From TrEMBL:
BP GO terms, sorted: ceramide transport; high-density lipoprotein particle remodeling
Pfam families: LBP_BPI_CETP_C
Lineage, opening ranks: Eukaryota, Metazoa, Chordata, Craniata, Vertebrata
Gene3D superfamilies: Bactericidal permeability-increasing protein, domain 2 (3.15.20.10)
CDD domains registered for this protein in UniProt: BPI2
GO cellular component terms, semicolon-separated: extracellular space
GO MF entry, a single one: phosphatidic acid transfer activity
Protein name according to UniProt: Phospholipid transfer protein
InterPro entries documented for this protein: Bactericidal_perm-incr_a/b_dom, BPI/LBP/Plunc, Lipid-bd_serum_glycop_C
Region (Disordered): 264-285
The encoding gene: PLTP
Organism for this UniProt entry: Leptonychotes weddellii (Weddell seal)
Length: 285
């Protein structure tokens, strides 16, 4: 895997530093080394100078990260049997009762399976009013009898929009998602799409209760920011702009600055016993 390129800037005490001029939150397979997500992000412009350090992240940073997760097949969730919340299990069995009763007795009481699979890379939109993530996913509901092929009850498409709250906690950039918009429709017929309308509100509630906590538990682990030991962020603040967000913070040195520098200085690989005298001259007298 090799890192991609993107857009990110760092400001220290009001001065812009181009430490990594093309910062991207993604890793791509070596087999696709020439592939690149087009960068249409706006160039972040920073006006604040109240904190010691500022980092700006454009929409492209988050889009490239989600593109990477999508290509790796990580944006999918499968819940089977006891993993499906009890209330959601009852709701789905009641909704598809007409299809279930027509099955053989050996299948009727089989564990329920709920599978969500993202169909396209999610997209992030950053505005002064907040950050949203748009996702289109397939939702498959099936029964999974033991030693038999699973029996699909329904396959539908879900359009969802999440609000994303970014926060800097400790040395990690963390995200918390909240489901704002939710719509499902059938892949099979318009008639089934109409039949799914009464299911939308309770299914959204069940997803908020049963699925979102698991998703947020993973998201809240965050992305670690590699600060040296002895340096911490304090007075963190996250500000949204049009197309990018900024994170500002002051630095707190738990140890003396000289001690931190010496501890993180690369080790001297030279032989300490080697003579520093110049080699003897080979010129003939």
């Amino acid at each position: 895997m090799v890192p991609g390129t993107g857009c990110g800037n760092i400001w220290v005490l009001g001065h812009k530093l181009t430490l990594i001029p093309q910062l991207q939150g993604a890793f791509f397979p070596l087999a696709e080394g020439n592939w690149s997500l087009p960068n249409r992000a706006v160039e972040p412009q920073l006006q604040e100078e109240e904190r010691m350090v500022y980092v700006a992240f454009s929409e492209f940073f988050f889009d490239s990260a989600m593109e990477s997760y999508f290509r790796a097949g990580a944006l999918q969730l499968s819940l089977v049997g006891d993993k499906v919340p009890h209330d959601l299990d009852m709701l789905l069995r009641a909704t598809y009762f007409g299809s279930i009763v027509l099955l053989s007795p050996a299948v009727i009481d089989s564990p329920l399976k709920l599978e969500l699979r993202v169909l396209a890379p999610p997209r992030c939109t950053i505005k002064p009013s907040g950050t949203t993530v748009s996702v289109t996913a397939s939702v498959t509901i099936a029964l999974v009898p033991s030693d038999q092929p699973e029996v699909q009850l329904s396959s539908m498409t879900m359009d969802a929009r999440f609000s994303a709250k970014m926060a800097l906690r400790g040395k990690a950039l963390r995200t918390q998602l909240d489901l704002r918009r939710f719509r499902i429709y059938s892949n099979q017929s318009a008639l089934e799409s109409l039949a799914l309308i009464p299911l939308q509100a309770p299914l959204k509630t069940m997803l908020q209760i049963g699925v979102m906590p698991m998703l947020n538990e993973r998201m809240w682990r965050g992305v670690q920011i590699p600060l040296p030991e002895g340096i911490n962020f304090v007075r963190e603040v996250v500000t949204n702009h049009a197309g990018f967000l900024t994170i500002g913070a002051d630095l707190h040195f738990a140890k003396g600055l000289r001690e931190v520098i010496e501890k993180n200085r690369p080790a001297d690989t030279r032989d300490p016993w080697a003579s520093s005298a110049p080699p003897p001259s080979t010129t003939a007298a």
